Amino acid sequence: MIKLDFEKMGGLIPAVIQDHESGEVLMVAFMDEKTLNLTLETGKTWFFSRTRNKYWMKGEESGNTQEVKEVLTDCDADTVVIKVKQNGPAACHTGNRSCFYVKWENGEWVEHSNPLFDPNEVYKK
Amino acid sequence: MIKLDFEKMGGLIPAVIQDHESGEVLMVAFMDEKTLNLTLETGKTWFFSRTRNKYWMKGEESGNTQEVKEVLTDCDADTVVIKVKQNGPAACHTGNRSCFYVKWENGEWVEHSNPLFDPNEVYKK
Binding positions for Mg(2+) (chains A, B)? Predict the structure, then answer.
Protein backbone atom coordinates (compact mmCIF):
# COMPACT_ATOMS: atom_id res chain seq x y z
CA MET A 1 0.00 0.00 0.00
CA ILE A 2 1.45 3.37 -1.00
CA LYS A 3 2.01 5.85 1.84
CA LEU A 4 3.18 9.41 1.33
CA ASP A 5 6.66 10.28 2.62
CA PHE A 6 6.43 13.42 4.75
CA GLU A 7 9.75 12.69 6.50
CA LYS A 8 12.12 14.02 3.81
CA MET A 9 10.95 17.58 4.50
CA GLY A 10 10.27 17.42 8.20
CA GLY A 11 6.56 16.68 7.92
CA LEU A 12 5.77 18.60 4.74
CA ILE A 13 5.41 17.85 1.04
CA PRO A 14 5.27 20.25 -1.91
CA ALA A 15 1.82 20.51 -3.54
CA VAL A 16 1.75 21.63 -7.17
CA ILE A 17 -1.65 23.13 -7.99
CA GLN A 18 -2.55 22.89 -11.67
CA ASP A 19 -5.58 24.24 -13.56
CA HIS A 20 -7.43 21.08 -14.52
CA GLU A 21 -8.37 22.46 -17.92
CA SER A 22 -5.47 24.60 -19.12
CA GLY A 23 -2.68 22.69 -17.30
CA GLU A 24 -1.28 26.01 -16.11
CA VAL A 25 0.62 25.65 -12.82
CA LEU A 26 -1.27 28.10 -10.58
CA MET A 27 0.77 27.86 -7.39
CA VAL A 28 3.05 25.65 -5.30
CA ALA A 29 2.48 25.46 -1.56
CA PHE A 30 3.14 22.95 1.21
CA MET A 31 0.96 20.39 2.94
CA ASP A 32 1.42 18.28 6.03
CA GLU A 33 -0.51 15.06 6.59
CA LYS A 34 -3.44 16.91 8.19
CA THR A 35 -3.89 19.44 5.39
CA LEU A 36 -3.54 16.74 2.73
CA ASN A 37 -6.30 14.77 4.46
CA LEU A 38 -8.45 17.90 4.78
CA THR A 39 -7.95 18.48 1.04
CA LEU A 40 -8.93 14.90 0.19
CA GLU A 41 -11.94 14.96 2.53
CA THR A 42 -13.34 18.44 1.78
CA GLY A 43 -12.49 18.64 -1.91
CA LYS A 44 -11.01 22.11 -1.30
CA THR A 45 -7.25 22.82 -1.09
CA TRP A 46 -5.76 23.25 2.38
CA PHE A 47 -2.10 24.09 3.07
CA PHE A 48 0.43 24.66 5.86
CA SER A 49 1.99 28.11 5.69
CA ARG A 50 5.70 27.90 6.57
CA THR A 51 5.93 31.68 7.02
CA ARG A 52 2.71 32.19 9.06
CA ASN A 53 3.08 28.76 10.72
CA LYS A 54 -0.62 27.98 10.35
CA TYR A 55 -3.17 25.96 8.37
CA TRP A 56 -5.08 27.79 5.70
CA MET A 57 -7.67 27.00 3.06
CA LYS A 58 -7.08 28.60 -0.30
CA GLY A 59 -9.80 31.22 -0.71
CA GLU A 60 -10.72 31.48 2.99
CA GLU A 61 -10.29 35.27 2.73
CA SER A 62 -10.55 35.96 -1.00
CA GLY A 63 -13.30 33.49 -1.82
CA ASN A 64 -11.04 32.16 -4.59
CA THR A 65 -11.32 28.57 -3.45
CA GLN A 66 -10.04 25.63 -5.48
CA GLU A 67 -12.21 22.59 -6.24
CA VAL A 68 -10.13 19.40 -6.31
CA LYS A 69 -10.56 17.41 -9.52
CA GLU A 70 -7.62 14.97 -9.39
CA VAL A 71 -4.81 14.20 -6.94
CA LEU A 72 -1.61 12.49 -8.07
CA THR A 73 1.58 11.53 -6.28
CA ASP A 74 4.92 10.55 -7.77
CA CYS A 75 7.26 7.58 -7.92
CA ASP A 76 8.76 8.26 -4.47
CA ALA A 77 5.49 9.55 -2.97
CA ASP A 78 6.97 12.77 -1.58
CA THR A 79 5.11 15.35 -3.71
CA VAL A 80 1.55 15.82 -4.94
CA VAL A 81 0.09 17.38 -8.06
CA ILE A 82 -3.49 18.54 -7.55
CA LYS A 83 -5.62 19.45 -10.54
CA VAL A 84 -8.24 22.00 -9.57
CA LYS A 85 -11.04 24.17 -10.85
CA GLN A 86 -10.01 27.65 -9.72
CA ASN A 87 -12.99 29.63 -8.43
CA GLY A 88 -12.86 33.39 -8.86
CA PRO A 89 -10.57 35.18 -11.28
CA ALA A 90 -7.17 34.25 -9.94
CA ALA A 91 -5.13 31.97 -7.70
CA CYS A 92 -2.37 34.32 -6.62
CA HIS A 93 -2.78 36.71 -3.68
CA THR A 94 -1.32 39.44 -5.96
CA GLY A 95 -4.38 39.12 -8.20
CA ASN A 96 -2.48 37.31 -10.94
CA ARG A 97 -4.13 34.24 -12.43
CA SER A 98 -1.07 32.18 -11.53
CA CYS A 99 1.68 32.90 -9.00
CA PHE A 100 4.23 32.15 -11.74
CA TYR A 101 4.19 35.50 -13.53
CA VAL A 102 7.94 36.20 -13.31
CA LYS A 103 9.99 34.97 -16.27
CA TRP A 104 13.76 34.52 -16.81
CA GLU A 105 14.58 36.70 -19.82
CA ASN A 106 18.02 37.77 -21.10
CA GLY A 107 19.76 37.06 -17.82
CA GLU A 108 17.24 38.53 -15.39
CA TRP A 109 13.84 37.93 -13.80
CA VAL A 110 11.15 39.99 -15.51
CA GLU A 111 7.68 40.52 -13.99
CA HIS A 112 4.66 39.96 -16.25
CA SER A 113 2.09 41.01 -13.67
CA ASN A 114 -1.51 41.32 -14.84
CA PRO A 115 -3.72 41.41 -11.72
CA LEU A 116 -7.34 40.32 -12.29
CA PHE A 117 -8.46 41.72 -8.91
CA ASP A 118 -7.21 44.41 -6.52
CA PRO A 119 -5.57 42.69 -3.53
CA ASN A 120 -6.30 45.76 -1.34
CA GLU A 121 -9.98 45.27 -2.00
CA VAL A 122 -9.96 41.49 -1.48
CA TYR A 123 -7.61 41.16 1.50
CA LYS A 124 -8.89 43.69 4.02
CA LYS A 125 -6.13 44.39 6.62
CA MET B 1 15.78 43.33 -8.88
CA ILE B 2 14.17 39.98 -8.13
CA LYS B 3 16.39 37.44 -6.34
CA LEU B 4 15.34 33.88 -5.61
CA ASP B 5 14.82 32.95 -1.96
CA PHE B 6 16.77 29.75 -1.21
CA GLU B 7 16.73 30.41 2.54
CA LYS B 8 13.24 29.12 3.33
CA MET B 9 14.35 25.55 2.56
CA GLY B 10 17.94 25.66 3.73
CA GLY B 11 19.47 26.43 0.36
CA LEU B 12 17.03 24.60 -1.90
CA ILE B 13 13.94 25.41 -3.96
CA PRO B 14 11.38 23.06 -5.52
CA ALA B 15 11.58 22.87 -9.33
CA VAL B 16 8.41 21.82 -11.14
CA ILE B 17 9.28 20.38 -14.56
CA GLN B 18 6.48 20.70 -17.08
CA ASP B 19 6.22 19.42 -20.66
CA HIS B 20 6.31 22.63 -22.70
CA GLU B 21 3.74 21.32 -25.16
CA SER B 22 1.28 19.16 -23.22
CA GLY B 23 1.58 20.99 -19.88
CA GLU B 24 1.94 17.65 -18.13
CA VAL B 25 3.93 17.91 -14.88
CA LEU B 26 6.78 15.45 -15.54
CA MET B 27 8.61 15.62 -12.23
CA VAL B 28 9.40 17.76 -9.19
CA ALA B 29 12.95 17.90 -7.91
CA PHE B 30 15.11 20.34 -5.97
CA MET B 31 17.70 22.88 -7.00
CA ASP B 32 20.22 24.93 -5.10
CA GLU B 33 21.67 28.18 -6.47
CA LYS B 34 24.46 26.31 -8.31
CA THR B 35 22.16 23.85 -10.10
CA LEU B 36 19.70 26.60 -11.00
CA ASN B 37 22.55 28.57 -12.57
CA LEU B 38 23.82 25.45 -14.37
CA THR B 39 20.29 24.93 -15.72
CA LEU B 40 20.03 28.54 -16.92
CA GLU B 41 23.53 28.48 -18.46
CA THR B 42 23.49 25.03 -20.11
CA GLY B 43 19.82 24.88 -21.11
CA LYS B 44 19.64 21.38 -19.59
CA THR B 45 18.03 20.62 -16.19
CA TRP B 46 20.36 20.11 -13.25
CA PHE B 47 19.22 19.21 -9.71
CA PHE B 48 20.49 18.58 -6.18
CA SER B 49 19.55 15.11 -4.94
CA ARG B 50 18.57 15.27 -1.25
CA THR B 51 18.81 11.47 -0.92
CA ARG B 52 22.12 10.96 -2.79
CA ASN B 53 23.44 14.36 -1.61
CA LYS B 54 24.89 15.19 -5.02
CA TYR B 55 24.38 17.26 -8.18
CA TRP B 56 22.92 15.50 -11.17
CA MET B 57 21.83 16.38 -14.66
CA LYS B 58 18.57 14.82 -15.78
CA GLY B 59 19.49 12.25 -18.42
CA GLU B 60 23.18 11.93 -17.47
CA GLU B 61 22.70 8.15 -17.29
CA SER B 62 19.52 7.51 -19.31
CA GLY B 63 20.15 10.03 -22.06
CA ASN B 64 16.65 11.39 -21.37
CA THR B 65 17.83 14.96 -21.00
CA GLN B 66 15.46 17.92 -20.78
CA GLU B 67 15.86 21.02 -23.01
CA VAL B 68 14.83 24.16 -21.14
CA LYS B 69 12.23 26.22 -23.01
CA GLU B 70 10.98 28.62 -20.33
CA VAL B 71 11.81 29.33 -16.67
CA LEU B 72 9.32 31.01 -14.35
CA THR B 73 9.38 31.91 -10.68
CA ASP B 74 6.50 32.88 -8.44
CA CYS B 75 5.28 35.83 -6.39
CA ASP B 76 7.60 35.07 -3.44
CA ALA B 77 10.47 33.78 -5.63
CA ASP B 78 10.95 30.53 -3.74
CA THR B 79 9.93 28.00 -6.42
CA VAL B 80 10.52 27.60 -10.16
CA VAL B 81 8.45 26.10 -12.95
CA ILE B 82 10.60 24.97 -15.88
CA LYS B 83 8.97 24.14 -19.18
CA VAL B 84 11.03 21.62 -21.09
CA LYS B 85 11.23 19.50 -24.18
CA GLN B 86 11.70 15.97 -22.81
CA ASN B 87 14.22 14.02 -24.86
CA GLY B 88 13.72 10.26 -25.03
CA PRO B 89 10.49 8.47 -24.18
CA ALA B 90 10.08 9.36 -20.53
CA ALA B 91 11.11 11.58 -17.64
CA CYS B 92 10.72 9.15 -14.73
CA HIS B 93 13.47 6.71 -13.75
CA THR B 94 10.74 4.02 -13.60
CA GLY B 95 10.22 4.41 -17.34
CA ASN B 96 6.93 6.26 -16.93
CA ARG B 97 6.44 9.37 -19.05
CA SER B 98 5.78 11.39 -15.89
CA CYS B 99 6.72 10.58 -12.29
CA PHE B 100 3.10 11.37 -11.33
CA TYR B 101 1.50 8.05 -12.27
CA VAL B 102 -0.09 7.30 -8.87
CA LYS B 103 -3.65 8.57 -8.45
CA TRP B 104 -5.92 8.98 -5.38
CA GLU B 105 -8.98 6.84 -6.13
CA ASN B 106 -11.74 5.76 -3.73
CA GLY B 107 -9.68 6.40 -0.65
CA GLU B 108 -6.36 4.92 -1.71
CA TRP B 109 -3.34 5.53 -3.94
CA VAL B 110 -3.60 3.51 -7.15
CA GLU B 111 -0.62 3.00 -9.49
CA HIS B 112 -1.15 3.63 -13.23
CA SER B 113 2.32 2.58 -14.28
CA ASN B 114 2.99 2.32 -18.01
CA PRO B 115 6.78 2.18 -18.47
CA LEU B 116 8.02 3.33 -21.91
CA PHE B 117 11.51 1.89 -21.32
CA ASP B 118 13.00 -0.86 -19.14
CA PRO B 119 14.87 0.77 -16.25
CA ASN B 120 17.11 -2.33 -15.91
CA GLU B 121 18.28 -1.76 -19.46
CA VAL B 122 18.78 1.98 -19.11
CA TYR B 123 20.27 2.24 -15.62
CA LYS B 124 23.07 -0.34 -15.58
CA LYS B 125 24.04 -1.10 -11.93
Answer: 74, 76, 78
Kindly report the pTM of this predicted structure. Answer: 0.96
Which domains does chain B show, CATH number per domain? 7-89 (3.10.20.810)
Residues from chain B contacting residue A119 (CB–CB below 8 Å): none
Radius of gyration of chain A (CA): 15
Interface-testing mutation among A79, A84, A114, A116, with chain B (most B C-beta atoms within 10 A)? A79
User: Per the annotation, does B92 bind a ligand?
Assistant: yes
Q: Average per-residue pLDDT in chain B?
A: 96
Q: Assess B6–A contact: CB distance below 8 Å, yes or no.
A: no
Q: Is pLDDT of A63 > 90?
A: yes
Report CA torsion sign: B37, B40, B42, B48: positive
Q: Is A46 helix (H, G, I), strand (E, B) or coil?
A: strand
